[in-house]
Every structure is written in C-alpha cells, then in structure tokens.
C-alpha cells in the first residue's frame, strides 16, 4: 500500500508541528510548508497526495492560493481555518477545495476526513483514467488507448502484453514523477494476487520494466525513457502529451 504524502501548510509553527507529528504517527509522510512558494517547491520535487491548507497565512490568502493551485493541479485540498461561517466555507468550496475544517478541530475527525478525501480521490482518478480515451505522444512514439495500439517512431506497431500495456499506461499518466515499485504494483492492481510480499512484487516489477524497455528503448541497457531512479524505483523521463478523443 502506498504511503500517503501530505503537505501541511500553516504559518503557525506550533500547529504545523503538531499536525505533522499526528500525521506521521498515523502512517503518513507529512511535509511542512509555510507559504505558496514552499508549496510550489514541494509539488515540483515529488508526489503530493493531499494538501492541508490554512486560510490565513500571514500576508498570503489560502483561498487565493487554493484557486491558483486548482487551475494547475488536481491534488486534493482540505482547507483549515478559524473562520467557520457558511460564507467562509462556500468561499473555500467555490475555488475547488475538497473539504473545509474549522478550528479548533478534533484530530480523529481530521484524520477521518483526510482518509475520506484520499479514498474519494483514488476512486475518482481510477474511474476517470479507465474511461478516458486519448492518444499519447512521447519521444516520437504514439499510444492509442482506444485502439490499444503502440506505434514506434518509424510507424511500426509494437505488440505489448496486457501487463506491459498497463505499465505503459501508468508511466504515461505519471511522466517525470518517480514511482516506487509498490506504487507501480498498485497501479497495475497486482496487490491482491497470491504472491504479495514486497520483495516478490519488487522482483516482478523489475522483470516487467525490463520487458517493456526491450520493446520501446533503443538501448534497453542504457534507457533514455524508462529510467531507474536510485533509492526510489522508476521514472518515465520524457515529455508526454495527450490528445483527447
């Protein structure tokens, strides 16, 4: 199971540290931030599954930050604020917040709301991904998800197995984002199979990556697209564009 990576954005040092500690104690990776610039740095440097965003951040306004994030990001956002009127809540929802929690709050309730938003985001992403039909372009290659066809830069159709296709789909949906072997296994929906130890899953993913490299890389031993990310897993290191159908 992938460990959720949460970004805690609050300029109150004591509250930020408390939230970070609570989240870490409950199986999450919690990263602290105090302003919009730090949010941007975290988003550009790695996967963020959810943002806890305070409304009042010194000279910055969390509602305005949420609006700007939502115009560029689909990451779930829970707003936290001492402002608890209906109009305050509606302002948060109007700019795309997934939930709005008023201070002071019970930490167990906050954790429950976080779990609910994460679960909803996973289900929504899964459904949208499976229903969405598009043609993906990457490094001269074309993947037509409607026809389930892969064409090389020379125009030759390359045959992929069901599992290789699923791996390619996961990579295309997460270009330039380092993925752990556990995340790839989850995306391929192999976590429910009989052999589920992390070591066995890791070996299976490594073998699968090797097979896909052999079909799409010019030199599988020195890959340019599907690269190994040391200490993490793998990253699809080329730009991907999607053409809606």
Summarize the structure.
The protein is of the alpha/beta class and about 240 residues long.
How would you describe the overall organization of this protein?
The structure is a single chain. The protein contains 8 helices and 15 strands. The chain has 245 residues and is an alpha/beta fold. The chain folds into 2 domains: 5-128, 3-Layer(aba) Sandwich (Rossmann fold); 132-244, Orthogonal Bundle (Arc Repressor Mutant, subunit A). It is elongated, with a radius of gyration of 20 Å. It has a 5-stranded parallel β-sheet, with helices on both faces. Strand 13 and strand 14 (233-236) form a beta hairpin. Helix 6 packs across helix 8 (198-216).
Strand content: 15-25%
Query: Judging from the principal axes of the Cα atoms, what is the shape?
Result: elongated
- The stretches of 5 or more residues where confidence is low (pLDDT under 50) are 126-131, 191-195
Q: How big is the Rg? A: 20 Å
The largest sheet has its strands arranged as 2-1-3-6-7
Separation, N- and C-terminal Cα atoms: 33 Å
- The first-level CATH class name of the largest domain: Alpha Beta
The total number of structural domains is: 2
Mean pLDDT: 85
**H/I helix tally:** 8
Please state the structural category: alpha/beta
* Number of β-strand runs: 15
Largest sheet: 5 strands, parallel
* CATH H-level superfamily title of the largest domain: Response regulator
Give the ordered list of helices and strands.
EHEHEEEHEHEHEEEEHEHHEEE
Q: If you consult CATH, what is the topology of the largest domain? A: Rossmann fold
CATH architecture of the largest domain: 3-Layer(aba) Sandwich
Portion in helices: 40-55%
């Amino acid at each position: 199971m992938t460990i959720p990576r949460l970004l805690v954005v609050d300029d109150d040092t004591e509250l930020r540290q408390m939230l970070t500690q609570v989240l870490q104690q409950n199986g999450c990776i919690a990263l602290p931030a105090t302003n919009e610039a730090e949010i941007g740095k975290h988003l550009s440097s790695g996967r963020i599954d959810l943002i806890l965003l305070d409304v009042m951040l010194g000279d910055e306004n969390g509602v305005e930050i949420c609006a700007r994030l939502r115009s560029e990001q689909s990451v779930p956002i829970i707003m936290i604020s001492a402002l608890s009127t209906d109009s305050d809540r509606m302002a948060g929802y109007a700019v795309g917040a997934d939930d709005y929690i008023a201070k002071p709050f019970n930490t167990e309730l906050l954790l429950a709301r976080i779990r609910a938003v994460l679960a909803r985001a996973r289900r929504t992403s899964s459904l949208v991904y499976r229903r969405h039909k598009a043609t993906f372009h990457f490094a001269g290659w074309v993947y037509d998800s409607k026809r389930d066809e892969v064409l090389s830069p020379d125009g030759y159709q390359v045959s992929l197995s069901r599992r290789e296709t699923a791996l390619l789909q996961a990579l295309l949906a997460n270009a330039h984002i380092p993925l752990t072997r556990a995340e790839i296994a989850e995306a391929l929906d192999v976590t429910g199979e009989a052999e589920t130890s992390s070591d066995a899953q890791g070996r299976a993913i490594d073998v699968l990556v090797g097979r896909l490299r052999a079909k799409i890389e010019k030199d599988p031993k020195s890959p340019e697209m599907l690269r190994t990310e040391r200490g993490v897993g793998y990253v699809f290191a080329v730009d991907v564009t999607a053409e809606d159908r």
